[in-house]
Specification:
twelve-stranded antiparallel beta barrel; mainly beta
């Protein structure tokens, strides 16, 4: 039984390795800065690095809790025409009433497949599976293997306006899943500038929270994008604040 508890998440991570339909999207795409799962997949053979510096501040009864994510990283590799592999990891630094700590967190490996490109009214669809890598010696990594399953949808409302929506389910050290479900709008102002508005909800076993994110993405070149975004909690608007500045860089053309 213990062996299957270790092997099962790895088998689940292989679920998205097949898809159907044709993929004619060979342009640059980035999976940031939004939280809702996206449908974009790298073409075969391309490698992309997405990273950010993130700042969070939470106030609990006049006690300030600050978290810096100094290197939020996603490494993406186009394995097949419609499937990419992903490796993620964050290095965080937190300050709680003068007590500081730092470590690696959110360490995962997984895959995403674009299942369907969409039609006139039908959305594009993608499936993603990640495995959370444990470390019992760390306070920031889970004690046991975990799994995340995500389903993403996207509709092109106009040539410039896109609606995306999706859900992901994560099992991390708990028999009950943490659910994230949300929706976003992106508006392409011109060939370089895009705007993001997103609302998402997190149903954690211990609490339910709602968030709004507003972001700006600027494409520096055909293979590089920078972004800045801010995020607010709808549960208590004044007590939770978030800011991120990020980069997406396609390291190879093929």
């Amino acid at each position: 039984m213990k062996r299957w508890k270790t092997i099962l998440p790895m088998l689940l991570a292989l679920l998205p390795l097949t898809g159907w339909g044709q993929d004619d999207d060979n342009g640059f795409t980035a999976d940031r800065p939004g939280r809702t799962p996206g449908v974009s997949v790298l073409p075969k053979g391309r490698v992309q690095w997405e990273t950010a510096v993130e700042w969070e501040r939470h106030d609990f009864y006049d006690i300030a809790f600050t978290v810096w994510t100094l290197n939020s990283t996603v490494l993406r590799w186009g394995l097949f025409d419609r499937t990419e592999l992903q490796l993620t990891g964050d290095w965080i630094y937190q300050d709680y009433e003068g007590q500081t700590d730092s470590d690696l967190t959110n360490l995962t490996v997984g895959a995403k497949t674009r299942l369907y490109d969409g039609g006139k009214i039908w959305p594009a669809v993608a499936l993603q599976t990640n495995v959370f890598i444990p470390n019992r010696r760390s306070d920031f990594l889970p004690d046991n293997w975990g799994v995340m399953l995500a389903l993403a949808f996207e509709n092109a409302l106009t040539k410039r306006l896109t609606l995306g929506y999706g859900i992901d389910l994560s099992w991390i050290d708990s028999p009950r899943a943490t659910n994230l479900f949300g929706a976003y709008l992106t508006y392409q102002v011109n060939d370089r500038l895009s705007l993001l508005a997103e609302e998402y909800n997190v149903d954690h076993p211990e609490e339910f929270s709602s968030w709004v994110m507003l972001g700006v993405m600027w494409q520096l070149s055909k293979r590089m994008q920078i972004d800045i975004a801010t995020e607010f909690s709808m549960n208590d608007f004044s007590d939770d604040k978030y800011l991120t500045v990020g980069l997406a860089w396609q390291l190879t053309e093929r």
